[in-house]
Design a protein that fits this description.
- This protein is globular.
- The protein starts with a helix and ends with a helix.
- Helix 4 packs antiparallel against helix 5.
- The longest helix is centred in the N-terminal third of the chain and has 29 residues.
- It has one domain.
- The protein has 13 helices and two strands.
- Helices cover 65% and strands 2% of the residues.
- With 268 residues, the protein is mainly alpha-helical.
- The protein has a two-stranded antiparallel sheet.
- It comes from Methylocaldum marinum.
- One of its GO terms (cellular component) is membrane.
- InterPro entries: MlaA (IPR007428).
- Belongs to the MlaA family.
- Keywords: Lipoprotein, Signal.
Length: 268
């Protein structure tokens, strides 16, 4: 579905992915080596999109309509605060000790002073929100992501991402509560709340992309790479080669050579 795993983690790179998708109009479509299961993936995305259009989107629109904005924000803050438990664990697994201290402080401040996390007091105290998950930890350890994989009901992922999702689910303390109806109910609320927050983002994706499937796939890889490298991803080799070719004709040497070859009358 056009939810959680498809859009929520992709917002920082939507603009870049839009440029990539639009630029693809001028070139022949190539098979992406990261996506050997494209036939399967397109079929699953179509299933997820249909389910989203007829179920998740209407429910999320109704939720957004009946829920006061301050309540909606409080629910989002609560789930973000719970997620910080997993963030702290992954900070430790990646040996980010300073960030571990910051995220631990953020969790304690929001839990105590923020009424269980419903109020984001920590951000006002310059304790920023970090995003760390098991997939990022595995990537930081050098484990390859594997090919692109669209999961039913979940969205874009990879084999490493699927394993990371299982780890994140196990690390969520709400999922330890009995009876099982409680975590299922809370999980449903979280899903609806996050989908409601992404209603405007869905419109951006639909309007900006030429091939919606490629748009989401490229944005997913770009965003995961961005997070794993803490905002400083290495340039893709193919991208570097293309940039070198583009800049080759703009070098000062070429400009001087062209000017030297111009007739004197044109130079004047």
């Amino acid at each position: 579905m056009k939810t959680i795993r498809q859009l929520h983690p992709l917002l920082p790179v939507l603009g870049l992915a839009a440029i990539v998708s639009l630029a693809g109009c001028a070139t022949a479509t190539k098979h992406d080596p990261r996506d050997p299961w494209e036939g399967w993936n397109r079929g699953v995305q179509k299933f997820n999109d249909t389910l989203d259009d007829y179920v998740m989107k209407p429910i999320s629109q109704g939720y957004q309509w009946i829920t006061p904005s301050f309540v909606d924000r409080g629910i989002t803050n609560f789930f973000s605060n719970v997620d910080d438990i997993g963030v702290i664990a992954n900070d430790l697994l990646q040996f980010k000790l300073l960030q571990t201290g910051q995220d631990t402080g953020r969790f304690l401040v929001n839990t105590v002073l923020g009424v269980g996390g419903f109020i984001d007091v920590a951000s006002r105290l310059d304790l920023p929100k970090h995003n760390e998950d098991t997939d990022q930890t595995l990537g930081a350890w050098g484990i390859p992501s594997g090919p692109y994989l669209v999961l039913p009901f979940i969205g874009p992922s990879t084999p490493r991402g699927a394993l990371g999702l299982a780890g994140d689910t196990a690390a969520n303390p709400i999922n330890w509560i009995n009876p099982a109806a409680i975590p299922y109910s809370v999980g449903t609320l979280k899903t609806v709340d996050m989908r409601a927050d992404l209603l405007s983002a869905t419109k951006i994706v639909d309007e900006a992309s030429v091939d919606r499937y490629e748009f989401i796939r490229n944005a997913y890889f770009q965003q995961r790479n961005y997070l794993i490298h803490d905002g400083n991803p290495p340039l893709d080799e193919q991208f570097e080669e293309e940039m070198d070719l583009e800049l080759e004709g703009l070098s000062p040497t070429n400009f001087n050579t062209e000017n030297e070859q111009e007739p004197a009358s044109e130079q004047l």
